[in-house]
Structures are given as C-alpha cells and as structure tokens.
Specification:
2 copies of one chain form a homodimer. Chain A is α+β, with helices and mostly antiparallel strands. In chain A, the strands form 2 sheets. The first copy, chain A, has a 7-stranded mixed β-sheet, with helices on both faces. The longest helix of chain A has 17 residues. The radius of gyration of chain A is 20 Å and the shape is globular. The C terminus of chain A is likely disordered.
Chain lengths: 313, 313
C-alpha cells in the first residue's frame, strides 16, 4: 500500500508481472447474518470475519494471493462505534491471516437494513489463475471440507422451534466461522495439476454444474467414494430433510471444488494432509456435456440435482 | 480483462510497472439521488452515470487512468429489470468515456432503501499519483468548473416550495450530470507542475482544509481572482443563502482543487483551455499551517469557512 486511507483513493503497487484478481461480496443484515430469536451466534467480529472469508473463498477458487481490500459500510446512525470497530477488527484479522489488508473504503448512513460490501484484490501469476473452464474428460473431482455442514448449521441456528444441542456446534461453526482455503489453494496451485476450480458457496451440485457448463463436460459423483458424515445425517433427521439435500443443495459452505489431472491425485492428497484440510476425491469428469450423474451406494445411477434425488419420482 | 464476469473473480492484467489506484463510493436511494415530489430529475441511466463520475472524480484527483470497476447492487426484488439495465448502461457509458469497464460485481436483494456501490481501479505511473500531501509555500491554488453550482442545483431540485425555472438548468445539470475531469487531470499530470490535488466533493473550503492539513500548509483565497458567477448569485438569492456559502460550503461538485508550482500556471491554463474545462487560479499556499484566509473584494482578510463568512460576527 503506497497511499492508504485518507486520500481520494488508495495507491497499491502490484508485484511485477502479476495479474490482478478482483472479487466483491456483500452481506445484508437479517439475510446473510442472523440468528434464532434469543440466541446471539453472530458477534460483530464474526460478521466481519465471515465477510472476509466469503471474499477470500473467491480468491482461493482462483488460486490468487489476497492483497488489498476496500470496505463499504451502510450503517444506521445509531450504530455503536465499538461494534463497528469490532467488525473491522474481525475483518482485518481474517484478511491478515491470508496476507491481505484493508486499503480504503467508505461509510454511508442507511435507515433500513444495514449492509457491508467488501472488494478484495489479489495477485496471480499471469495465465495461471484457476478458472471454471479447463476441466477435461477423465479428470478427477475433489472437494474440501464437509459440504452441507454450513447449510445444516444455518438451518439449526435460525429455526426457533429446535432446541440448541451441544453436538450441533461443529455445524454452527461451519456456518458462522468458515475456515479459509487460501493457503491450501496456493499450495495445490504450485503442483500444477488442478485443471478447473470453483467455490461451492451456491452448493455442491449447483456449482459443479457451473464448472461443467463452463468446461463443456459432464460429471459422475460416486457415493461410495464420499465418506459418510454421521453428524450431518443426524442433523438432516432433526431437520426433517434428506442428508443428500444438505450435501448437494444450496448451502453456505466456502469450500473448494476442484478438477485434477488423474496423475495429480496423490500429490494433492499429500498437500491437503500437510495443510490439515480434508480433501476428498468424489468422482470424475465425463465427456457427456451438461450431464451430472450420482452413483448411489447400491450402484444405481441417478441424476445429481441440488435437492439430492427424489425417492418418489 | 483476462477473465471477466461469470467466474469466482475477475482477472485483470495491469500495465507493467503501473501502480494501482483504488476507490469505492456508494449511493443510497433517497439520499444520494432524489428529486422534489412530482419532478423526475434522475433517470436510472443518470444515476448510474453519476455513480461512475463520483468514483472517476477520485481517480482524477490522483491523476490515475481508470481501468476496471466492480459493481455491487442492493435492489428490491420488484425492481424493474429494464431499469437495472438502464442504470448499468449509464454507468458503463460513463466509465467507457474515460477508458474503464465493469469487470465484475454482485447483486443482493434488499427490502428498504436501495443502494449501489462501485469500486473503481485505475493505474498510475509509480510514485507519480497526485496526493493531498505535497503543497508547498508559494504554490498557486486552482480549481476547475463552477464550485457551488451542484450544491445549488441539489437544493433547487429537491425543494418542493420553489417553482422550477428554465434558468436553473445549468445548476441542476451540475448536480445531476457532473462532467468528468479525468482527461484534464491526465493532461495536467503530464506537465509535472501539480504538487497536490483533491476533489471537492465535500465542498471547496472543507477539502482545501483537508489538503492543507495533509501538506502542513495554509492557504489564502482571493475573491478578486475568482470570477463572479451571476447565475449562482441569483440562485443564492432565491434560496435565501449567501453565495459564498454555496461556493465554499458542502456541495456535490466533482471538481478538482490543485496546487501548482508558480512557474506552471501558464502551461496549466493552456492545457485547460485545450480541454475545454474552466480552470481558475484563486489563491496561493502560505506557510501558516492550518490557516485558511479569504481576501474579500474590499481587500479585507477573513477566515475562510465552509459557511462563507458570517456578516454578523
């Protein structure tokens, strides 16, 4: 940062020969952060950190090094200054964890719902940023973390008819305090075996469809390769949902979905193990453009949809 | 733009050896764009163009070349799609006029007031971006355009007790359709005589104070050097205000305030003339840090304040 806040604009000096990677994401009060009445899951610090993680996830999905952020806040005039400082602290700490800083921004007064909008800039080696396009027939499909947990946590944390249970805490945490995948992404990128990537903030099936559409390929996901998540299954039962609807459907997971050249699997697994991040190979890329297939545990092929699959069809 | 919208983030390729200049600005419905009841001064296209101009003004004040923008929109679900397209067209056209494009963004639903937030990235030669710091004793002070006109237009355009008059149109236009000063700024920067710069979106006196504070200097503004603006004086009378309060006070003018090495005056005037932009030299920088003086037409020294000066003091 050559010139930071307090001038008309911030002046930033990119690394020589670096491409710039830019993303923007916005949280709206009562929509992107809310809790069941009587509970207080989101502190200002956690809201700030989560907005940072949402943007960091977009850069992770491009294998970009986070560098600079600009924050816009729309707050009601009566907003406590201490809470704003807490929010900026949570956001700043989450950015600093991955090497980025807030370089500027602005504040406007609003009367209704508050909102916070972050623009995050990163750097990538020219021509080496991961994209959604690039997946090839026979590539393997891998995913980080425990997809579906954040969506389960969001449902458990906002439904006032469900009593809180200590065992749900990992699901609540997946929603409220998502981890960063930036370091893993940068480590994996250096292996040069990832052919395409996307973050699954819209849900595994939906974002796999986006990646396949951009790459002009299809995908086959194998249930037997996907370790069961007993906690998620218990949450699905408590919520009256299919576990597959949580795993594959719309969620708030900031996890990475990658396609990997077949020869690169072992190296990716070793890198993920060293990073302490779960990385599971769950299927492969096919030549049937636009066709997403789910092989269930009984070996039956069904269309993979964002609602899992419908038993009554 | 190497990778545009539709991926997790945009990938941008800066010019080799360029510094990046980044700004963000937000408009909130009924606050940054509104008209008197029964009038319709702001079309969606004009709102989009004005948000672009607000951000472009920050880059002009840094002498940066505009390149890429990211747009975040918070809109009510019932917002007409055609109006959104008009807004993006107005914004895109205003950016294109100065060489910039929208490279990404996002859209969220809101229930209360709508808002639009733009982050604009530009490039500058390393170490050559204008800043607020840099003004030196004996430098000259210059300002573009007709400061105060936008503020007069905003008051005339929002007060329902004042009948519209055709003669106010240039004032309304100064508010609704501000010009870009980017081309002039780039032309002036190439002369290498501007020592500090700021845009006067907070008003002439307030932003002159910001520049003086950053530079550790004072300023003397000479009323006899400042051409009278008869239209602004008539508007002040109609509004029941002092003309000086409009000229020096809080306004919505996206004009440039520059300090210039004394030897650079003629070259700046010639460049402005060629650009078709009014540039007036209105005073000089003094060594009295923090002291802003107004020499009135009778040669009396008074403190320069954001309310002009108070006759009854």
């Amino acid at each position: 940062v050559v010139v930071g806040g307090g001038d008309d604009a911030a002046v930033l000096r990119p690394s020589p020969g670096a491409d710039l990677v830019a993303t923007t994401d916005t949280f709206v009060e009562n929509r992107h952060y809310r809790s069941a009445p009587g509970t207080k899951l989101f502190t200002p610090r956690l809201i700030g950190a989560r907005l940072a993680r949402a943007n960091l996830s977009d850069l992770a999905a491009m294998a970009a090094r986070p560098r600079w952020a600009l924050l816009s806040l729309g707050v009601r005039p009566e907003h406590e200054l201490d809470d704003l400082i807490e929010l900026e602290t949570g956001l700043g700490d989450a950015l600093a964890h991955d090497g980025a800083v807030v370089a500027g921004g602005n504040l406007v007064a609003v009367e209704g719902a508050e909102w916070l909008s972050l623009t995050l800039l990163g750097e990538a080696t020219p021509g080496r940023a991961w994209q959604r396009v690039g997946a090839r027939h026979h590539d393997l499909i891998a995913v980080t973390g425990f997809p579906g947990r954040a969506g389960a946590g969001a449902r458990l944390g906002t439904r006032s008819d469900l009593a809180p249970r200590a065992e749900w805490q990992p699901l609540i945490d997946a929603w409220v305090r998502p981890d960063s995948r930036v370091r893993l992404a940068l480590a994996l990128a250096s292996l040069e075996v990832v052919t395409a990537a996307i973050d699954i903030s819209d849900g595994f099936a939906g974002d796999l469809a986006h990646l396949c559409e951009a790459s002009g390929v299809g995908a086959e996901v194998d249930a037997t390769a996907w370790p069961e998540d007993p906690l998620l299954m218990r949450a699905a039962a408590a919520l009256g949902m299919e576990a597959d609807a949580l795993t594959f459907g719309p969620s708030d997971d900031y996890e990475l979905l990658l396609t990997v050249a077949p020869t690169g699997r072992a190296a990716c697994e070793e890198t993920a193990r060293k990073s302490g991040v779960r990385l599971v190979f769950v299927g492969s890329v096919t030549g049937h453009a636009g066709t997403l297939v789910h092989l269930d545990r009984q070996g039956h092929e069904r269309p993979l949809t964002t609602t899992g699959y419908d038993h009554f069809r």
